[in-house]
Design a protein that fits this description.
Two copies of one chain form a homodimer. By secondary structure, the first copy, chain A, is mainly alpha-helical. Chain A is 72% helix and 6% strand. The first copy, chain A, has two domains: 30 residues, no CATH class; 168 residues, Four Helix Bundle (Hemerythrin (Met), subunit A). Chain A is built from six helices and two strands. Chain A has a two-stranded antiparallel ribbon. Chains A, B: Belongs to the Casparian strip membrane proteins (CASP) family. Chains A, B: Keywords: Cell membrane, Membrane, Transmembrane, Transmembrane helix.
Chain lengths: 213, 213
């Protein structure tokens, strides 16, 4: 409200409000009021923002766990079948499918970004009125959301195909043979969708925190 | 600027700032200052927000065009091959692939949502300080972004497979035969990704507009 005068903290901003009130009410001494405000409790908006920041941090850690688990499960999945034809041995691993490689890369990138974003999230808790960090988090959370959603959906499409095949195009279902590969890959996809869900909540939370400025 | 009288607008907030300044400078008459503010030009924040609102509206129309084109191209793609085996005639249409059906539905839903969101976008231009409509748009834009990204990525995974096949899993490439089907489907996927790009910009723009409250 009087950003025009001070820096970017609303801790500073609340003070002139008290001045206005006191000068309106009965010409009381503004410096005294200012001192009590500086030493006293934080304004309600800051408390609310701090709460959002703490939820943000917790959700961020959960999203790190989800995407890390998805990437790890996908990266360690590998199954050889005990029989082979004259052409090649049947084996399935994530790098036989370009889509699964993309899935692994996408989840790993999101996981790395989320780890790097933790300090910014902590800054938003310590200084609830810093707008720059919150805005930065929102923009990159949106991009991470898009990347993770892309990786998860593409992998889900291939997993669906592996489970059901497509008779119209002569694509056989794999999961009858690869009975260990398919559940692990499906689990990785579920973990990735969980990460997407958390990132969506993070974007909306950041927007709500920005709104209260 | 008479918005300030109608309720929750920042127009109310801007007025005491002038009062503070004037009472500090030389105890000038605050009511006069207030009156000129009410009748005068809009504050810079409102003009900035109105500009964002207009860009928002234009981008929204572009996104409607992109998703509608993607859905329409996918829905009208159908190709029969001039030869057939003893089993079935070779034909490809979007409803042979569950993923393409999902693509069509996802893009159609996003397109319908975007059309329905146009009035809210116009409200944000006419009354730049209404926070509710802006927040609503941001939340649903994020969800639409996730849905469209999901549809586009899943379809892209299948299109990639149709172009290249997967020798490890005996999934043959289709696009040698279906030389008309594949380019059309690829075009639809590109249109959908364009929609995703626009929606990402819309989310960031909405967040920037919320920030300036």
């Amino acid at each position: 409200m009087d950003l025009s005068r001070s820096g970017k903290d609303t801790g500073d901003i609340a003070i002139p409000v008290r001045e206005v009130k006191s000068s309106k009410s009965g010409k009381g001494a503004p410096p005294v009021v200012t001192t009590t405000t500086r030493l006293g409790q934080t304004p309600p908006a800051a408390g609310w923002k701090r709460g959002v920041g703490i939820i943000d941090l917790i959700l961020r850690v959960c999203a790190i766990a989800a995407t890390l688990a998805a990437a790890a499960v996908m990266g360690t999945t590998d199954q050889n079948l005990p029989f082979f034809t004259q052409f090649f041995q049947f084996q399935a691993s994530y790098d036989d499918f370009p889509t699964f490689t993309f899935f692994l890369a996408g989840n790993a990138i999101t996981c790395a970004y989320l780890v790097l974003s933790l300090p910014f999230s902590i800054v938003c808790i310590v200084r609830p009125h810093v707008i720059g960090a919150r805005m930065l988090l929102l923009i990159f959370d949106t991009l991470a959301l898009a990347l993770t959603m892309s990786a998860a959906s593409a992998a889900a499409a291939i997993v669906y195909l592996a489970h059901n095949g497509n008779p119209n195009t002569n694509w056989p279902a794999l999961c009858q043979q690869f009975n260990e590969f398919c559940p692990r890959v499906s689990g990785a996809v579920v973990g990735s969708f969980l990460g997407v869900l958390i990132l969506t909540v993070l974007v909306v939370l950041s927007a709500a925190a920005l709104r209260r400025n």
